[in-house]
Design goal:
The complex is a heterodimer.
Chain A: H1 5-16, E1 22-26, E2 33-39, E3 50-56, E4 67-70, H2 100-112, H3 122-130, H4 132-146
Antiparallel strand pairs in A: 1-2, 2-3, 3-4
Helix pairs in contact in A: 3-4
Chain B: H1 2-19, H2 28-39, H3 44-56, E1 74-75, E2 78-79, H4 94-102, H5 122-132, H6 140-151, H7 156-168, H8 173-180, E3 184-185, E4 192-193, E5 197-199, E6 205-206, H9 208-211, H10 225-228, E7 250-252, H11 277-283, E8 295-296, H12 297-300, H13 304-336, H14 342-346, H15 348-364, H16 366-376, H17 378-387, H18 392-413
Antiparallel strand pairs in B: 1-2, 3-4, 5-6, 5-7, 7-8
The chains are: A alpha+beta, B mainly alpha.
Protein name (chain B): Sip5 protein
Family (chain B): Belongs to the SIP5 family.
Region (Disordered) (chain B): 326-372
């Protein structure tokens, strides 16, 4: 099945006009499937780490959100041990005006501002709320261990 | 190249007019469409079109929703049906969208150009238009012959319509070049169009192809359902603007200063389809001179309310079945567990909590449950009554479903 023009153009524009700290490369055999590398934002416990994600554009993209998952382990209240991400714009707040680049920027923003009140990883969120310095320390350790 | 093909098309259609008289079982319009589609060997719309046709015999399409893909019907150089940017099933109300386009309240479905820069020659532009697209109406031969066939239709009003069209829709290459010399990119599909709609909230451009894809999210429980316990309530919210996320989403369209193709004053409904939709739109004052006319998603998908009602009914049925099981699952506990205290029978809170172990118990020993229950609970015998005649696998599936529902319901009550 032919690839929609939008996906072709988005891919081209990701190459010609890359976002700093984000690399998304499509698989040769499946141009809807992307390998993503995301740099941990500075000033966060994820700084210095490079996180691998997988991104898939479903059949009815852009009318439905891309599917996105962390492959690198990360200590974050909104990302569970399977790498699934709790982010509204990946679910019911997705809009077809968003793009691969904007969704990846949203994920980067989520790393900068964890939201333990709407957790996906309950254990991590509990520690984040009870003892934030400890949580941040653990997140740093995980970043060093898994993302460097 | 295009010319020879379309001339052949004319010939084929002409001959089908004479020889096809006996083919009374084939609708005349089908005949026209099919011949044209056969000639336009473009993939996407062709496929959609054929799948629509083939599925038609199996599945009844609701009135007003059936796709009408007639490339001879044009409005200001665009069409009345999607041009294949989106290949999934189309579920908007076709009759409403047709009317909105003809009334110039929504941009027609133009062919989306892909990355043609402004320095290209007219020939390059035309060939890009013709290869990009799924059907071509630039040749008057095809138009006229199609009209000839159409005029053999028994419905007199249609013949008048199409005669009018044939005078109007001679969209020649010059017009196409003129139109497509000044294009704007739709920020959703990234294709270039001569004219776009604008969102009424924030003024962003959006092509009709993308606009008709937008729909309400499926009905869902309220966001604070877990706190309020309203898990049996379902809500459906209007679609939000894709650009600014404001909830009151709709688009306006500034009609061009010219009018090509079907006149905006003509009766937009094809064939003998006199649907009620026209009245509905008129109620919203289609012809109102006050301000631009806002087209909303609910207008082109008026079935959202039916969908919500049926989703609610489905949930209510499920919960009723779960309640029946819920009640019956508590009762055997008083019989089979002699240790149960009287409070567990009467205190609502305890009741709900006690249900989980009881269910487990009943699952392990269904016989005990049945005996105890047929004696004690009318509701359960009702359930049994309805379960009679099912085979073992069906019963097991039903039991599983009801257990799931009962657990949900009991969680909601605590």
């Amino acid at each position: 099945m032919a690839l929609p023009k939008r996906i072709i153009k988005e891919t081209e524009r990701l190459v010609t006009d890359p976002v700093s700290g984000i690399i998304a490369t499509p698989h040769e055999e499946n141009l809807r499937y992307f390998d993503v590398s995301l740099e941990g934002p500075p000033g966060t416990p994820y700084e210095g780490g490079v996180f691998k994600l997988e991104l898939f554009l479903p059949e009815d993209y852009p009318m439905t959100a891309p599917r996105l998952r962390f492959l690198t382990r990360i200590y974050h209240p909104n990302i569970d041990r399977l790498g699934r991400i709790c982010l509204d714009v990946l679910k019911d707040h997705w809009s077809p005006a968003m793009q691969i680049r904007t969704i990846l920027l949203s994920v980067q923003a989520l790393l900068s501002s964890p939201n333990p009140d709407d957790p996906l990883a309950n254990d991590v969120a509990a520690i984040w709320k009870e003892n934030e310095p400890l949580a941040v320390q653990t997140a740093k350790e995980w970043t060093e261990k898994y993302a460097m | 190249m295009g010319n020879t093909v379309t001339k052949e098309a004319g010939a084929t259609i002409q001959s089908s007019k004479y020889s096809g008289m006996e083919q009374s079982n084939i609708c005349e319009n089908d005949n026209t469409d099919r011949t044209q589609w056969h000639l336009c060997k473009q993939d996407l719309v062709h496929k959609i079109h054929r799948s629509k046709r083939s599925s038609k015999s199996h599945k009844k399409v609701m009135e007003g929703y059936e796709m009408i893909a007639d490339p001879t019907e044009t409005v200001d150089g665009g069409f009345l049906f999607p041009q294949g940017v989106y290949t999934g099933a189309q579920d908007f109300k076709v009759s409403v969208v047709r009317e909105l386009i003809i009334r110039r309240k929504l941009a027609p479905f133009y062919k989306g150009l892909d990355g043609i820069d402004s320095s290209c020659t007219d020939e390059q532009l035309l060939s890009a238009l013709n290869t990009n697209t799924n059907s071509v109406v630039s040749d008057s031969h095809e138009t006229e012959s199609a009209t000839t066939v159409n005029s053999s239709d028994t419905d007199a009003s249609i013949s008048t319509n199409t005669t009018l069209q044939s005078e109007n829709i001679k969209i020649n290459n010059e017009e196409q070049i003129w139109l497509y010399r000044n294009v704007t990119e739709c920020p959703i599909c990234f294709l270039d169009y001569p004219r776009l709609n604008n969102t009424s909230c924030c003024g962003y451009d959006i092509c009709t192809e993308c606009f008709v894809q937008i729909k309400r999210n499926p009905p869902h429980p309220p966001h604070n359902a877990e706190q309020t316990g309203d898990v049996l309530e379902l809500l459906s919210e209007p679609s939000a603007c894709p650009f600014c996320a404001r909830s009151d989403f709709g688009v306006t369209f500034e009609a061009p200063p010219f009018e090509w193709g079907i006149s905006s004053t003509v009766d937009p409904l094809p064939r003998n389809q006199k649907s009620t939709s026209i009245v509905k739109i008129d109620e919203c004052s289609l012809t109102s001179p006050t301000g631009p006319f806002k087209v909303t998603i609910d207008m082109i998908r008026p079935d959202w309310e039916d969908k919500l009602i049926s989703a609610r009914a489905k949930l209510a049925r499920k919960s009723a079945a779960a309640q029946a099981l819920h009640r019956s699952a508590i009762l055997p506990s008083t019989n089979t567990h002699a240790s149960s205290t009287p409070e567990t029978k009467h205190s609502k809170q305890h009741k709900s909590r006690s249900v989980l172990p009881d269910i487990r118990f009943s699952k392990n020993k269904p016989k005990t449950l049945t005996e105890a229950d047929v004696q004690n609970a009318n509701s359960y015998s009702e359930v049994l009554e309805s379960a009679r005649g099912m085979d073992r696998a069906q019963l097991r599936a039903l039991e599983k479903l009801m257990l799931d529902e009962a657990i949900k319901a009991s969680m909601a009550q605590t």
